[in-house]
Amino acid sequence: MGLLDNLFSAAPQLDETVDAALSPINTDNYGFIPITSVSRQAALTVPAVKRSMGIITGVIGSLPIEQYNKATGAHVVPPRSITQPDPRVPASFVYAWLAHDIKLYGVGYAYVMSVYSDGKIQDWTRISPDRVTPELNNNSTEIVGYLLDGNPVPNNGVGSIQAFYGLEDGILATGARTIRAAIALEEAAKEFAEYPTPQMVLKSTGTNLTKERVAKLIESWNANRYKKRATGFLNADVDLKEVGLDPARMQLNDARQYVALEIARLAGIPAYFLSAEPNSMTYSNAISERKALVDFSLRPVMTAIEQRLSMPDFSSSLVETRFDLDDFLRGNPLERAQVYEILNRVGAMSVEQIRQEEDLIR
Q1: CA 8 to CA 115: how far, in whole Å?
Q2: What is the pLDDT of residue 200?
Q3: Domain range enclosing 346
Q4: What letter would DSSP give residue 142?
Q5: What are the pLDDT digits (tens) for 184-217?
Q6: Mapping DSSP to helix (H, G, I), strand (E, B) and coil, where does residue 15 land?
Q7: DSSP string computed for 288-308
Q8: Of 89, 210, 344, 362, which one is least surrounded by beta carbons within 10 A?
Q9: How large is the average pLDDT for residues 70-80?
């Protein structure tokens, strides 16, 4: 991560601790520990995976994050640990990469750089799961600590690792077979782009040739046909036969489209966003697609972040943390006007509040 991996020097650790669930029960060693069958770097070479992660992390990273009083629902000014967790970079950068880890690995990690006098976390940053190793108890049923780059860290306070557990397993594990199939198809497409003709065999129809003569004949044929795109010539003693299938007969494009659709299902992304299925999108149903995106793809990741930030080591027990989806899910101007008209008529919103909601007050 470059910038995020160059951590601040640790400030003196405070004695105060906060009661938080830092060591969840883990009866199957799965879900709390990131297990991957395909690497992140390999998965992101697949356009559908890259696009899926770009949508998820881009949307979540761009959403405002707010806090509200649990009893009254009133808006509360969130602390810097929520709005600017790492002073070195924008909050969007931290939350986008945290969402990235939760979706891919099923868990994201935060490194605590400083704490307030009451022990609550003040400054923190995202740490790549590749750098974190959970330590288990003797029965392998509970996480008792973490290693960062192979070195033990405290369970709380400055220098500790705090986990953001996802609501489901990461797609690098659950979707490994589909992702590997997509990688294989991308490699096949690349091979056919470099060598557009099917695999060919040169067969001698006359006397048997020596190994040296065969090697020289194949080398000359490949050099002229594939590199120089020159016209080839075979005499009566050598015959050319094609083996294998060309891209059209392999249905390579159809296979890649099918895998893109499977990756959309894997990531919970509506296929329209990945161009994985043909349809006609209008403005009216585009809003419905956004709602579907939030409900079935973004919501689990957002909930994992929101509820972890609402825990007592980050926030007061009187408040809850939520992403603000108002702008992302706004309807068209006519729909909003109709809603405002109803709310104003029943006394739920004043004209001034409506103007403020529509950014008409300068």
Answers
A1: 13
A2: 66
A3: 332-362
A4: B
A5: 888 876 666 666 555 666 666 666 767 787 777 7
A6: coil
A7: HHHHHHIIIIIHHHHHHHHHH
A8: 362
A9: 90
- Please indicate, yes or no, whether residues 70 and 219 belong to a single structural domain of this protein: no
| Contacts of residue 49, Cβ cutoff 8 Å, sequence gap at least 6 | 43, 179, 182, 263, 267
Judge residue 24's burial from the number of C-beta atoms within 10 Å of its C-beta, 0-12 exposed, 13-18 middle, 19 or more buried.
exposed
d(CA 286, CA 331): 10
**d(Cα 39, Cα 128) in Å, to the nearest integer?**
13
Residue type, 75: H
Question: What is the pairing mode between strands 65-69 and 319-323?
Answer: antiparallel
Last residue of a domain, one of 243, 274, 301: 243
Tokens coding 19:
């009661």
pLDDT at 1 over 50: no
* Model pLDDT, residue 64: 92
Mean pLDDT value across the chain = 78
Looking at the fold, whether 254 and 134 belong to one and the same domain comes out as yes
pLDDT for 197: 59
Work out whether the CA dihedral 190, 194, 200, 206 comes out positive or negative.
Answer: negative
Q: Are residues 211 and 234 in the same domain?
A: yes
Q: Which amino acid is at 309?
A: L
- Say if residue 159 is in the same domain as residue 209: no
Q: Tokens standing for 329? A: 């899910």
Torsion, CA 47, CA 51, CA 53, CA 54, rounded to 10? 130
Same domain (yes/no): 77, 193: yes
**Residue 270: is it exposed, middle or buried by C-beta count within 10 angstroms (0-12/13-18/19+)?**
buried
Query: What band does 275 get if pLDDT is binned at 50, 70 and 90?
Result: confident
227 and 341 both lie in a single domain: no
Flag the least confident range among 82-86, 132-136, 334-338. Answer: 334-338
The C-alpha atoms of residue 116 and residue 123 are separated, in whole angstroms, by 9
Residue type at position 99? A
Give the chain's domain count: 3
Report the distance separating Cα 38 and Cα 41, nearest Å.
Answer: 9
Name the burial class of residue 256, with classes exposed (0-12), middle (13-18) and buried (19+) by CB atoms within 10 angstroms of its CB. buried
Q: How far is 246 from 67, CA to CA, in rounded Å?
A: 58
